[in-house]
Amino acid sequence: MTTTTLRPTTLRRGRTLGDLLFSIGLGTFIVLVLFATLYPIYFVMIASVSDPTLVATGKVWVIPQGLSTFGYEQILADPRIWTGYRNTLLYTVVGTTLNLVVTLPAAYALSRREFAPRKFLMFFFAFTMFFSGGLIPIYLLYRDLNLLDNWLVFVIPSALNVYNLIIARAFFENSLPEELFEAATLDGVGYLQFFWRMAIPLSKAIIAVIGLYYLVQHWNDFFTGLIFVRDYEKQPLQIVLRDILLSNQAFAGGAGGAGGSGGGAYAQQFADQIKYGVIIVSTLPVLLFYPFVQKYFEKGVMVGSVKG
Amino acid sequence: MAQIRDGAGRKVGGVVALTLDETAAKVPGSPVVGPMTKGRRRRAVSRHLRTRWQLWLMVAPAVAVTLVFAYFPMYGIQLAFREFDFTAGLTGGEWVGMKYFNQFFTSPLFWDLMRNTVAISLTTLVVGFIAPIVLALAVNQVVGLRRKRFTQTATYLPHFISIVVVVGMLQVFLSPTTGVIPNFLSFFGVTDTNYLGDPDAFVPVYVISEVWQHCGWNSIIYLAALSSIDTHLYEAARVDGASRPQIIRHIDLPALIPTMVVLFILNMGGVLNAGFEKVFLMQNPLNLSASEVISTYAYKIGILQSQFSYATAIGLFNTVINFAFLVLTNQLAKKFANTSLW
What we know:
By secondary structure, chain A is mostly helical. Chain A contains 15 helices and no strands. Helix content of chain A is 69%, strand content 0%. Chain A is globular. The relative contact order of chain B is 0.10.
């Protein structure tokens, strides 16, 4: 206290009661928000390794109680999850690659101001963000194209996301120095060559951003499997998750079958532990990836917010 | 070379013709004298393709994908006015006009579907619009870069969790017998807590989980706008003795208005878009009276019952209302806020 009074004019002395109250209110609000955001995820983690009976009776709140790996053992033994994992990995890798091959060149072409049709083309693309043919015409089209029950349905129709196209275009427009292009043109370099040799190496940040957006989109895709695929061998992880988490389908070993009203609370709590484990297993790649890539995600939103 | 050029040119021939006049008029030094003759037009096309064919090539895959998977289904919308015929395909059925729209409008379910859809999407729109603004204003006030970054990073983590997992979490948390939330509430003597089966709880549970998942992510764009505010403004305000709430009210909030307007217009374009996947996954026989919305109904009619024409009509109705709201909001914003999408 004495030291503060000795300082000439510190901010602290200038603070009024109102400022203090504001700081307290703000701090409380932020802490509450953080708690509400992170606690559910944390709870799933501790519940997945705790004794299911203790979880179900409300004894587990902060630290795992009575360690149990029952849920994870069941998950490891269930082939459905690994089939789903394998399928989703395939769709994500192939899909994201195709996404980048389609999106990046188009975004670059549309970023060239001398490309006269670009205004019309931007409208052509953007219009599809707000108007669509609807579910049934799309379904019938896929049927005619033999895309139903075909794994290509997970990668080809979603090859272009217009939002990502707009972000990438804004990046090319604002970040590539025009002098570079002019110098290259003097050396007789065409658009394709310039794109491949100069634009791509200089745009690693935006490739990371939209690559990650596409990656998450494929990883979390549930709709495509639900509507267009019947063959369970081709279903992605999200469909398998739905069946385990929401439909309460019987699990290997019969432990998870007690869903809804029929089974007692006893079987239900074992089913719940499997669910907690499944949530962790399916979300783990995203959660592990997240700290390393979050700055890129953010960058994407920033670039996109530059009005193009 | 010539082959590729022709290929690209043919694929998008209509586009070339449409924009040609503009090209010619804007090239410096090209004399603009009256309407173009046929020969000059052809010369301009060939020059455009000669110099720009590589750009056409680069944009061609994206155009092709969009034409096939976005525009061709729009052509299929006419199915809403036709009797679907398995042998005749998408466009061969008999013309029946507004039959299926009338069937939908007079259906006993129509007003329930409308009420549910509007209740879910409008509540999401309002709450989901305000929450990120409040969060951004608050996070912006956090002192210390590391603390600020941590708050941001933590709040948009849930955005990357899949909808299936979020709904799965809701189910285990809210389970009346074993869920953590009923367990917690029972400490306070609240016992009758079947939030998953109660129709009245559907909208709150939907909207709260929606805010939980996307609020942080949606606040990034506002934080970006706040970080671009000229720091001189803050210094000047402090010299004038403004308090932090006053600074928020008179500097921060006004700086967010253009972003708010744009996002609001975009959101209005989804006024009847109660997110199909999440609503569908949260549905159960007990809450169906509050959770059946236009898109889930169209799915059941179309995909599960194969009434293709009827489902197309329902889908088209949904799209048209959304589009109308988008255009209307855009016009209003243009008039009153001087900001618009186009």
